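Hi everyone, sorry if this is the wrong subforum. Our group has a chain we'd like a structural model of before ordering constructs, and none of us has done structure prediction before. Sequence below.
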Amino acid sequence: MHFNDIFYVSQKKVRSDPISPSVIFASIAFYLAAIIAIAYAIKRSPDLQTKWLSSPMIYVLTLAVYCTSWSLFGVIGMATRSGLLFLPVYLGPTLAAMLGAPIVAKLVAMKDLHHITNLADLMVHRYKNCTALGVITTLIALVGTIPYAALQFKSISATFRILSDSSTQYFEFAIVVIIILVTIFLGIRKLDATERHPALMLTIAFESIVKLAIAFLASLFLVYIFSDKFSSLGEIFAATEWKPFSFAENNQFGFFSWMIYISLSASAAIFLPRQFHVAVVENTNPLHIRTAAWLFPVYLFLIAFSIVPLTIVGLSAQLSTDQADTFLIRLPLLAGNAPLALLVFIAGFSASSGMIMIETIALSTMTSNHLIIPAASRFLWLRYLTRNILKVRWAVAAIFIFSAYEYTHLVGDNYPLAQMGMNSFAAFFLFVPPVVAGLYWERASSKGALIGLLAGFGAWVYLLFLPTFLQMTEAGSLFLEIGPWGIGALRPAEFLGIETLDPVCRTTFVALLLNCSGLIFGSLLFPDKRLGNESEGALSDLPRFRKLTEEFDSGMVILISDKLAALERLLQNYYGAQEAHDVAVSIFEKRGIRETDVILPVAALIEIIRDIETYLSGIIGVASAHQVLISAGFITQEEQKAVSDIYGTLLSEMHISPAEMRRKLDYFSEREAILASQTDLLEVKLAERDVENEEKNAKIFDANRKLEASLAELKAAQVMLLESSKFAALGEMAGGIAHEINTPLGTIQLLSSELREALEADPAEVDFAKRLNAQIENTTVRIAAIIHGLRHFSRDAGQDPFIEIELATILHDTLPFCLDRFKIEGIRVLFLPPQTSILISARPVQLSQVFLNILNNARDAIRNLDDKWITIEVAAEGGLATVSFTDSGLGISKEVQDKIFQPFFTTKPTGEGTGLGLSVSKGIIELHKGSIRVDGTCKNTRMIVTLPYRRS
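Answer:
Right subforum, don't worry. Here is the predicted structure as tokens:
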């Protein structure tokens, strides 16, 4: 039977039953509860936030929000239909991470300096506060993101329908409501959009781990099962007729398409609202970008490596190409593994919900700051919205998520997941020319950027967005077929004769051409006013600017209490009364103004105004901050005139243009902000270092305690080793001592018998009895001396004091313990005492142990030789006394000499030695400030002990 038949039978017999919708919903609820619990725990622990967010790994995992449900489902469908054309989806962000790091670093620096919260803020700030650019950027982001968010809902509903085999109407609505609530709870809680969301970022990192782990392990398991433990994977590949290069079969520009898809994916990794938010806005340390440059591609590889095997296995398992988007969840069901299918569903839900949440947070801020607040400032009947910005963002979030949900039903199944995703990528590719030109081309102007964006966006709408809806109606289909006014060359499918490219590539090519042309020619034809050269040299005049400002006397002063009250009234449009007061006070304190009853020259307003604008830009955006400050009456007309006079005088004194002075002020403020942020960062690092040092000190203290305990145990072990070695020596002496005691005991017995017989034969033999009794007493004294020496040797001498004693005396006391045994075994011992008295400072018992150990080792080495002798010689020279123990052995090899004093090293057979004797002996001799060594120059075996001495 062919393996395709096996798979067909398998799906008929093994396919799992549908999972209950209540079980699926309970799993989602459990997962979301875990996410919220993690976020809550993180919010309650600032130390945990600091510790984890300081890790570049968390930054990399938040970047992985790029991998949505499309990465789990849609890319497999793309691989099925277009072969390896899915690879650019991962090659693009890989190149963006590796080569685009300088761009991201520059964007992070701008974000920190100017309170940039989104892509629209960036465009407005770079291009001369052009509010129109903020509007068009926001509109492009909204229109371009809705299809991508809809893709996520489509994947959730499609996989739910497959799992449960039931309707998804109520389920989808419930999911929409839940995602809205979780998004608001985790990400839209504070008015200042520049404030980071540590809890949200850590939960996104957790979601990235979940989707990677499940997708990776599930893919391995499925390929393992369906390819018979990987053994038939090659056969399956050959039988499925899957074509890796099918993307180029009907397209003579195959390589061109490949490059466009790589470019789209690379730009999406930076300019999608969610990617810009996690990569730029939420960045806590620019150094993390370096780590992400190599670690983020690793994540992409891990999540993408199984796409080809899954594609092959899915096609071989009788699944159709139309089902390719859901291979990853259908295959577990075919294998009869419903729990695995449920886990895959949770991974897809995690990827989708994470993307929707971050995208919604970014777009709600962008929409409120660049569409709603400017409109509310212009129309009185909308003015109440400015007092409810946070609620406005909640409403925008809800509307955006519901719009994406409705888009799913509007488009239906007309587009596969991959197509919807690439449509969005093409929209955000429009931002590449104005952003890159704004960063690196000084002459790029606001009008040029606006013309380019409008032209490119128009092309995207006409060629890619509108056809999605036009094909749903008869009139729309006719328009697509014949073109506007019947002009075939303007049909979206064959625009200007470009019919060999797929819709995404064609749209990208045309939009890029129009975008770049509009940007370049618009900037050249409608330049912004020259801003002057931004250089380090420009900073040299700024101290003079500060000095002139301080010396300028316009005759007008300001009362800080009045300005504080005015600022509070302004901030009460966005905060409560107490919070507005606290924020206002903090802004003035930043300039060192802590007293309210202070009068300052009007020139002080210059930098205070700049601080307030910077702060407001985090709430209502860069475009609205300045206008709101002026319209709120914070600066009176008289003060505006006085400030203008100050600027006029300064311009005259410094010989620069107004634009150049503004540039210098910006540059100087940026430098100050950098220094301030670096100072704050340094303080944080120092605090972290203090904590680390305290922890290290605690660890060192604990380690010292453990070391002291270990030393005590080591000393105890050393004592035990010493004693064990001593008792081993005693065991060696046992035979000789027994003989030494038995001989006098026999003498006593014999003399006692003779004495009894003599007295019985003749009671008058008193003299004879006295002689025998004297012999008995002498023999008894000899036995007592032996026993005394044995007791003296066997006790613990480790605490004995060092005493001055004759070296020869110690040897004389030691020899009786072994001489008799040596005599029994035929070993001759020759002791050559010194010619003069040699006094040493020693613990006699310990030295006796050393000498006895050396003698016993010599006995063991020579007892089987024919010629057996030991010579002990004592000599003294130059303040050192030497005791040489030479035996009739043939010496010790160099290899053994190097190891002989190591603990537990022995050349004796197993069970006949511990290997501790010479190691302990070496320690004892060194304690006596001496040395012990093997004389390698002697033809026999010689051990030499050297000790310091003095002559008596």
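For your construct planning: The chain is about 70% helix and 5% strand. The mean pLDDT is 75.
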